[in-house]
Design goal:
Length: about 240
């Protein structure tokens, strides 16, 4: 029996690194899922480690963290000696492990605060994930967040994964918002590079917190949402 989705709430403005404003000029938010919306990175590492173990491969945690933004297909292909491994078997084992534990994932409170600010400002949100829809969909449902996003773009929806810009560009296209007016939110270097290549401003999630300006390649300032809300109200009234 599936557990009911949790009613998650932001920990509040007093929490360090939990500013939840939206920069001036932003018309939409596009968020990565794993490691950004949801705290799934340790679980993904455990799943891949378990899938590799029958093949005598011990996953190096340092190597994994350097490649964490890649899709599972690209990750397995990039493994040292990966050309000798049965890719599809490993991918299926890893996914099965993740799906069996999907009810245990939790969201990052600071990102929930950002989503709440976007809802107040009536800004559309999308997911742009390098993972499969077979994992992202159940993850969003487990968190009770599927209705927060106007569209969800996954690895199946674009010819190239991150760090190519395809996923972020596809999400902007579906939202009908110019890419330069989108704020991308991502946690991995590949994701940040993908969003930058798409011509978007980027807000980085570092250890579950929204990084301040200049940290980890961030170039979006997180500030007050009043300006965005006022502009949206004026547009609606005109």
């Amino acid at each position: 029996m599936n557990a009911a989705p949790h009613a998650w709430t932001c920990p509040g403005p007093a929490s360090p690194g939990c500013a939840s404003g939206i920069p001036e000029g932003v018309e939409a938010l596009i968020l990565d899922f794993d490691g950004t919306v949801a705290d799934t990175t340790p679980g993904h590492e455990r799943a891949l480690r378990a899938a590799l173990r029958p093949h005598g491969v011990d996953l190096d945690p340092h190597w994994y963290r350097r490649h964490v933004g890649l899709s599972i297909h690209d990750l397995v292909a990039a493994l040292p000696g990966g050309e000798r491994l049965p890719h599809e078997e490993i991918i299926q084992r890893s996914r099965a492990h993740l799906l069996s534990h999907v009810h245990t994932i939790t969201p990052f409170g600071c990102v929930l605060g950002l989503l709440r600010a976007a809802r107040r400002a009536r800004l559309p949100c999308a997911v742009a994930s390098g993972a499969s829809r077979l994992l992202v969909g159940p993850g969003l449902r487990a968190l009770g967040l599927e209705r927060e996003f106007a569209t969800v773009v996954t690895r199946e929806d674009a010819p190239h994964g991150k760090p190519a810009p395809d996923l972020y560009l596809a999400a902007a296209h579906r939202l009908g918002v110019p890419r330069g007016a989108c704020l991308a939110v991502d946690d991995a270097p590949e994701g940040v590079a993908s969003a930058r290549a798409a011509g978007m401003r980027v807000l980085t999630v570092v250890d579950g917190h929204l990084a301040p300006t200049g940290a980890q390649g961030t170039d979006a300032v997180v500030g007050d949402t009043a300006g965005a809300e006022a502009r949206r109200s004026a547009d609606t009234a005109s």
